[in-house]
Amino acid sequence: MAIVKRVFLFLLTNFLVITTCSIFFHIFGVGQYITRYGVDYTSLAIFSLIYGMVGSLISLWMSRAIAKWSYGVQLIDENVADPRLRNLVRVVQALSRKAGLKTMPEIGIYGSNEINAFATGPTKSMALVAVSSGLLERMTDEEIEGVVGHEVCHIANGDMVTMTLLQGVVNAFAIFLSRAIAAIATRPSRDGEGRNSFLYFIISSVLQTVFLLLGAIVVNWFSRHREFRADAGSAEIAGRSKMIAALERLAMNYDRTYQEKGALATMKISNRPSGFLGLLFASHPPLEERIAALKKA
């Protein structure tokens, strides 16, 4: 049922976004790619690319601020009084240097019983690594190093930017194909009947939603690939045994901890999929597969 709710919310949100943007573009004459001679595919392609990329880039630029606000992240530094937090800062800084980061990421903690952590931010020099209070309470120092190494490698690999660009390209293809097909389906008839603008809007909106859902499969497949890569990176800079121990701890405690749903869950180190649709749209591979991959390497 969880995946059904997520799909429904995606469809509803997407429809509202499309409606709002379409009205705005129509009022201000943006994206006039349909002429009396047909579709200007060059103009449509440019419009689709801009339309598709802008939203993703804005989301990327705001990602660090949104994460802080959504989770109530409290930033910490090396002067913090709590020895556990001082150790966390030391670990993040040490692993960041080993990963080749020139600018240390911000470090934060958020209150949650779950055992999890995430990294986000628009660039390598404007990144955030945050861990849950549950992680600090239930994980050993070695396991924490494995988790931190994973998140630092996400930053070093430029995963936030890469995922944003991929999502932007997927958006652009969805916008282009939906509008091109809708234009063909509603083209004026030979008897002089004009294009049905309302029907065009409905067809393009429905098709765009469908194509975005299909594109989400591609985006999430790549997201699962980046998790394996971050695991391997953490094994290199923190130690393979520490990364394996961290994943085993996550697998052991996952079903007993609070599982957060929604888009922000994709940033975290662990987000277990369930069911066929869950696996298809999962942003993370099963923990068991990640552990096996590290043991085979």
What does this structure look like?
With 297 residues, the protein is of the alpha+beta class. It has helices at 2-27, 41-71, 83-98, 133-138, 141-156, 159-185, 197-253, 275-280, 287-296; strands spanning 34-35, 38-39, 74-76, 106-110, 117-120, 128-132. The chain has one domain (33-297). It is built from 9 helices and 6 strands; from the N terminus they run H-E-E-H-E-H-E-E-E-H-H-H-H-H-H. The strands form 2 sheets. A 4-stranded mixed sheet has the order 3-4-6-5, with helices on both faces. It has a two-stranded antiparallel sheet with strand order 1-2. The radius of gyration is 22 Å and the shape is elongated.
Quick description:
The chain has 297 residues and is of the alpha+beta class. The protein is built from 9 helices and 6 strands. It has one domain.
Tally of DSSP β-strands: 6
User: Distance between the terminal alpha carbons, to the nearest Å?
Assistant: 36 Å
The tally of structural domains comes to: 1
Number of helical regions: 9
Q: What is the radius of gyration?
A: 22 Å
What sequence of helices (H) and strands (E) makes up the elements?
HEEHEHEEEHHHHHH
In which range does the helix fraction lie?
Answer: 55-70%
- Regions with little confidence, pLDDT below 50 for 5+ residues: 1-7, 257-266
β-sheet strand percentage: 5-15%
Lateral arrangement of strands in the main beta sheet: 3-4-6-5
Look at the helices and sheets and give the structural class. alpha+beta
Could you describe the largest sheet, including whether it forms a barrel?
4 strands, mixed
Please state the average pLDDT score: 82
Shape: elongated
